[in-house]
Design goal:
Layout (H helix, E strand, L loop, with lengths): L1 H7 L13 E6 L2 E7 L8 H9 L7 E4 L15 H7 L3 E4 L11 H8 L3 E4 L3 H7 L1 H9 L3 E9 L3 E3 L11 H11 L4 E5 H7 L21 E5 L20 E5 L5 H9 L3 E4 L2 E2 L2 E2 L1 H10 L4 E4 L3 H9 L5 E7 L9 E2 L16 E8 L2 E7 L6
Parallel strand pairs: 3-4, 4-5, 6-14, 6-15, 8-9, 8-14, 9-10, 10-11
Antiparallel strand pairs: 1-2, 1-3, 7-16, 12-13, 15-18, 17-18
Family: In the N-terminal section; belongs to the cytidine and deoxycytidylate deaminase family.
Keywords: Hydrolase, Metal-binding, Multifunctional enzyme, NADP, Oxidoreductase, Riboflavin biosynthesis, Zinc
Catalytic activity: 5-amino-6-(5-phospho-D-ribitylamino)uracil + NADP(+) = 5-amino-6-(5-phospho-D-ribosylamino)uracil + NADPH + H(+); 2,5-diamino-6-hydroxy-4-(5-phosphoribosylamino)-pyrimidine + H2O + H(+) = 5-amino-6-(5-phospho-D-ribosylamino)uracil + NH4(+)
Amino acid sequence: MKQALTLAARGRGTTSPNPMVGAVVVAKGKRVGSGYHKQAGGPHAEVFALEQAKSKSRHATLYLTLEPCCHTEKRTPPCVPLIIQSGVRRVVVAMRDPNPQVAGRGLQQLKRAGIRVDVGCLKREAAELNEVYIHWVKTGQPFVILKAAMTLDGQIATATGESKWITGMQARAHVHQLRSQVDAIAVGVNTVFQDDPQLTARLSGQKEKTSSTRQPVRLIFDSTLRIPLDARVLKNIETSPTAIATTSQASHKKMEQLRSKWVEVLVVPQKAKRVSIRRCLQELGNMGITSLMVEGGSELNASFLREGLVNRVFLYMAPTLLGGQNSKGLVGGLSPKHLVQKIAVSNIRMQPLGDDVLISGDLNSKIQ
């Protein structure tokens, strides 16, 4: 099962909205077939493993990191019939699939076919691997990561908004790696005005070329559609799609101008004259976006934190101090009056990246 989990992890960043799945076929104590789900719409892990094993799969054991699918409302055929036809004698599954279309039905069909089924081997590790998928299936909303580059005293920009570059090359390269693994990246329109970012994943050795890397959806929160039509996030839509979350306050003419550029304009209900974050996440979940990385600025960070919608933080800290009451802190808005209102972060992890340090942690309890 450890081998199957290692294989499954190779699909990180390419399988969404599907889970990462690995499969290993073992006959007479030897691995005779293996595979993993490489990308959404492509063959599942079971297909690769059983095709590789061929006739050796008869009376063998199939190890799967997730319950095999049995429903037909998708782009690929169900895997349960293939497993039954292969002649395997036993199937070991790490965890059940929480998808209501599966949810134990795949295991039941295998048992009815006379195949021995064991469930729970390395279940915790399998759940951690697919925590994003599990969160999306159970809540209907993307798993939210809040990312920021900051000084030791928690500042993300000077009083004038200057923030390039707080952290060094290794930290920035790590961010691009993260971008390549999420479905969408979000910023507020003020960040577009200040930095005019591309919001693309540019991996090491690719320079400005992004076509060979799976690009996340670039999501801009802009309640009244103030975004300039020449902003860099509105370019290269064919390879780097862009969506704008706005409200009914926005100009219909501007909406049509943006849509003519193939930008997805999402008109979302308001909350305090701004885009309702919660309703926007529901819309994103319906679109099949399972993970969202929020890259600021401070007011957008505050909105997500205030609503309790952040699942994990990635804070890249540079060994510098900025100081000043008018510099830009990680979280905007008003400070709470009492310490009991503080936001707790658990499962803290630290990773050195050159001169900088990445501190990550969880904010909300994991869904069981």
